[in-house]
Write a structure and sequence with these properties.
By secondary structure, the chain is of the alpha/beta class. The chain has eight helices and 20 strands. The strands form five sheets. Strands 1, 2, 5, 6, 7, 8, 17 and 20 form an eight-stranded mixed beta sheet that branches. The chain has a five-stranded parallel beta sheet with strand order 9-16-10-11-12, covered by helices on one side. α1 runs parallel beside α2 and α1 packs parallel to α6. The mean pLDDT is 88. The structure holds flavin-adenine dinucleotide (FAD).
Length: 363
C-alpha cells in the first residue's frame, strides 16, 4: 500500500448523487467566516452512480420528471468548477489512525488520507454494466412484484441468444445479487433456463441449494459481445464467463449494502447497516453516511439531501479538528449562540479565521 502525499479534509467514497452532493457541499460553503475545505471523490465506476441507469427519473412525483442526464451534467459541472479530483478506484478498507484521522485503502494499492470520510457507496460498486443496459443487461427497478416479469424478459433475451444451441450448453441468465436473493426464490421456480448467481465473496456459503450455480466474485466487468452472448471477466480478469443475459438484482442489494471493511467497530441499526445520528454521523466520529447506503429510502431526492447533510457534517468535523472550534455562520444552520459570533465580526474586515486559512493555502 502506498500512502499519498496529499491529505484531504474530507474523502468521499462513492460518486453517485449522494457522494457528488456531499463533495460539492464541502467545497461550496457560503461566506461569512466559513471557508471551503479540500475533498476527493473515489469511485471505480462512472461518475453519477445509478444516475447512469436511464434517461428519465422521477425525483418526487410524476410532475417532477427530471432528465437524469440534466441532473448529472449539473453535478458534473460543479465537480469540475470546484476542482474536485475524482479517483477511479474502489475503496476496500477504511482505517482509523491514532490521531483520529482516516486512511482509505484503494484496490489499486494507494492510500488516501483525510480528516473525515463520507461513505456514499449506494448498495454496491459499479463497473461498466450501465453501458450495456438494454443490450443484455436488465435491472430491477419497479419493486418486487415486477421481478418475475423481469426474469422472464431476461430469459427471452438469453433464449434468443442461444437459438440453435442445445439447452444444456445455453449461456446462463447471470443474476448479480447477494445472500438476500434466497427470499426471491419463488420467482426462479420453473424459469426453464440455466441460472448462475454472482455474489460477493462469502455470500456463497449462505446460498446452498439455489436453483443454479453460485459463484463468488469480488468484481466483474463486461468485455464484449460474441454473437449474442456477453463475455464477462471476473475477479482480477483471469477468469471469464458467458452470459445470455445479466440481471442486476437491486431488490437484494438495497436491503444490505456492500460496505468497505473497517478496522474499527460501528454500532448497527440492524445487521450490516450502520447506525447514524441526525447529521448522518456513524458511531465513529468523522465517518458519515449518505444516500442508499443508509438503507432508509432509495431515491435521488433523499440521496442529494443526505449528501448535503453529511457533507456539512464532515466539513464541521474537519474544520473543528483544524481550528479547535465549530465553523460559524453556516448559511442554513444558525449557531447555538449567535451573539458570540456577532461580537467577532466587524463590518468591512475579513474574519480572522479566513485570514489564517488564506495564509495556510498560500492565498
Ligand atoms: C433501476 C433503478 C431506477 C431508479 N429510478 C429512480 C427514480 O426514478 N427516481 C428516484 O428518485 N430514484 C430512483 N432510483 C433510486 C436512485 O437511483 C438511488 O436512490 C440513488 O441513485 C442513490 O444514490 P447514491 O449516491 O446513494 O447511490 P448510487 O447512485 O448507487 O451511487 C453509489 C456509487 O458508489 C460507488 N461505490 C460503491 N462501493 C464503492 C467502493 N467500495 N469504493 C468506491 N466507490 C464505491 C458505486 O460505484 C456508485 O457509483 C432508481 C434505482 C434503480 C436501481
Amino acid at each position: 500500500m502506498k500512502e499519498e502525499k496529499r491529505r484531504f479534509d474530507v474523502a468521499v467514497i462513492g460518486a453517485g448523487p449522494a457522494g457528488m452532493s456531499a463533495a460539492i457541499r464541502v467545497r461550496f460553503v457560503k461566506e461569512h467566516e466559513a471557508m471551503t475545505l479540500s475533498t476527493v471523490l473515489i469511485d471505480p465506476g462512472p461518475v453519477g452512480g445509478l444516475l447512469n441507469a436511464g434517461r428519465t427519473r422521477f425525483v418526487t412525483g410524476p410532475s417532477n420528471l427530471f432528465e437524469a442526464e440534466l441532473l448529472l451534467s449539473a453535478l458534473q459541472r460543479d465537480v469540475a468548477n470546484f476542482n474536485i479530483p475524482v479517483r477511479q478506484a474502489r475503496a476496500v478498507r477504511v482505517l482509523r489512525r491514532g490521531d483520529g484521522s482516516f486512511a482509505t485503502e484503494l484496490l489499486d494499492g494507494s492510500v488516501v488520507r483525510s480528516s473525515a470520510v463520507v461513505l456514499a457507496t449506494g448498495s454496491r460498486p459499479l463497473s461498466n454494466e450501465m453501458k450495456w443496459l438494454g443490450k443484455g443487461v436488465f435491472i430491477t427497478s419497479r419493486g418486487v412484484s415486477f421481478f418475475p416479469g423481469l426474469l422472464a424478459e431476461a430469459k427471452a433475451f438469453a433464449s434468443q441468444a442461444d437459438r440453435g444451441i442445445p439447452a444444456l450448453d445455453a449461456a446462463p441468465v447471470v443474476v448479480v445479487t447477494n445472500r438476500n436473493v434466497r427470499d426471491l426464490l419463488p420467482a426462479f421456480r420453473g424459469l426453464g433456463h440455466p441460472l448462475l448467481f454472482l455474489v460477493p465473496p462469502g455470500d456463497e456459503r449462505k446460498l446452498k441449494g439455489m436453483p443454479g450455480e453460485v459463484l463468488p466474485a469480488g468484481s466483474w466487468r463486461i468485455l464484449r459481445k460474441e454473437g449474442n452472448v456477453l463475455v464477462v471477466s471476473i475477479g482480477e480478469g483471469t477468469a471469464f464467463l458467458s452470459a445470455g443475459a445479466i440481471v442486476l438484482d437491486y431488490i437484494s442489494f438495497q436491503r444490505q449494502p456492500l460496505l468497505p471493511e473497517f478496522d474499527f467497530d460501528l454500532m448497527e441499526e440492524r445487521p450490516g447497516v450502520p447506525k447514524v445520528d441526525s447529521m448522518l454521523q456513524t458511531s465513529c466520529p468523522g465517518l458519515f453516511l449518505a444516500g442508499d447506503v443508509t438503507c432508509r429510502y432509495a431515491s435521488i431526492a433523499c440521496a442529494l439531501a443526505d449528501g448535503v447533510t453529511a457533507g456539512f457534517g464532515a466539513y464541521t468535523h474537519a474544520y473543528s479538528r483544524m481550528y479547535g472550534k465549530e465553523p460559524p455562520l453556516f448559511a442554513y444552520r444558525a449557531p447555538e449562540k449567535p451573539a458570540a459570533y456577532l461580537r467577532l465580526v466587524r463590518p468591512g474586515r475579513r474574519p480572522a479565521a479566513r485570514k489564517r486559512h488564506e495564509k495556510r493555502k498560500g492565498g
